[in-house]
Design a protein that fits this description.
The structure is a single chain. This protein has two helices and four strands, in the order E-E-H-E-E-H. The protein has 88 residues and is of the alpha+beta class. The strands form two sheets. A two-stranded antiparallel sheet has the order 1-2. The chain starts with 9 loop residues before the first strand and ends in a 7-residue tail after the last helix. The mean pLDDT is 87.
Length: 88
């Protein structure tokens, strides 16, 4: 099985302490278990993952399984990003 090459991601160290490092990953395109596989490849164990945004949409304090309505501005930004005009 050949591995598909994905666009590079940005990784930032948020905090470090004995036995624990908090990293922020910014993916341009994600695949199933991509972060876990990248960490495994360099000998890191993932204890917890938390998605903080999807594109320009910030999730805030949204809990797993919860959802919220998108604002009109969020919808417009998503449509612009996808290359759709705002006119109907």
């Amino acid at each position: 099985m050949t591995e598909e090459r994905l666009p590079p991601c940005e990784i930032t160290v948020i905090s470090e302490e004995e036995g624990r490092t908090v990293l922020e990953f910014i993916l341009r395109e994600g695949r199933n278990r991509q972060i876990r596989k990248m960490c495994e490849a360099v000998g890191l164990t993932v204890a917890r993952l938390k998605r903080i945004s999807i594109g320009s949409i910030k999730l805030g304090m949204l809990q797993p399984g919860q959802y919220r309505e998108l604002t009109e501005n969020e919808i417009k930004r998503l449509l612009r990003t996808a290359g759709h005009s705002e006119e109907k």
